[in-house]
Amino acid sequence: MSDLSVKNLTLEYGSGASANPILKGVSMELQRGEVVALLGPSGSGKTTLLRAVAGLESPKTGSIQIGDRVIFDGAKNIEIPAEHRNLGLVFQSYALWPHKTVNENVAYGLKLRKMPAAEIAVKVKEVLNQLGLGHLGERYPHQLSGGQQQRVAIARALVYNPPVILLDEPLSNLDAKLREEARAFLRELIVRLNLSALMVTHDQDEAMAISDRILLLNNGVIEQQGTPQSMYETPHTLFTAEFMGSNNKLHGRVLQRDGDKAVIEVNGRQLNATVRGANMSQDATAIIRVEKVRISQTPSANAIELPLTTCMYLGNRWECLFGHAGEGIRAYAPQRLEAGNYWLQLDADKLWLY
Fold first, then answer.
1. Number of helical (H) and strand (E) elements in the chain, helices listed first
2. Is 284:252 a contact under the CB 8 Å cutoff?
3. pLDDT tens across 176-224, in order?
4. Beta pairing partners, 150
5. HSE-CB for 323 with a 13 A CA cutoff
6. What's the pLDDT band for 125 if we cut at 50, 70, 90?
7. How far apart (Å, rounded) are the C-alpha atoms in residues 275 and 288?
8. pTM (two decimals)
9. What is the Cα–Cα distance from 311 to 94, expressed in whole angstroms?
């Protein structure tokens, strides 16, 4: 049985002619010990879905089930209040009480559940030690770093052993360096404690690093779902291909097609490509990941010749732009390139057509 099951969930703001649909029949499952990331652009419905599961938004139709317990069913008029769903929730802002110590913040939910003080002390100490915060119990939030505050928020969500933990952009308040460290810590923690977690993020790198499965939302529906590797390597739609990874986009005209193989014309140059889109027309869009473009100083097969415009140093590599921004092609190089024209090889199996 799934730890979390969502079926045909719809949710809208407003009513009647002015109703604004946010979720349009979303279904998903979360298995024991699995981490699922809700990924998508702003307005796609990912945070609304998380809040609906938490009980902070009221869906219109569909159902939500935690284990064998139904917490929402539109047809049967069942809606369990948020405080009775027993879910752990980590807010984007952490939402720590500034006037309470770390111990008091973590213990707050247990006190609301009328747990004996001695049992609360044991549980708080245990969860703080698990997160490396045992020595900070008497400090206040303003005396902690951003990473430590984040871990206190996680400890508060874990202390009463919820069946599912909900994470709303848990790393967005951290700077870039700390975010990388925190996502490794969060993934290790989830695996070690065998947690079932549903996480909202707009950061594809974060989703790929932490989750076992990604649900990519687009305008209130699930565009595609799968493992991070399958989402990155086999995107079914143009939206998925563009959202995942760093890409070059080329507009061309399809000259011929044979199954999943096609020949397209881009700026007067014929290129072999692989068809990925189910509803491709004669005017198609080709996508190739930046890291898949190969740079050559001599004519190459399935390549476009363009002048080097600029190179940007990224530390472990250079990102080079050939042609004009917006219409050119980007590629990575191990060193800075000299000015001049280059052949950019676009292998047919890596040039995806939609």
1. 8, 21
2. yes
3. 888 888 888 888 888 888 889 999 999 999 999 999 999 999 999 999 9
4. none
5. 16
6. very high
7. 12
8. 0.88
9. 39
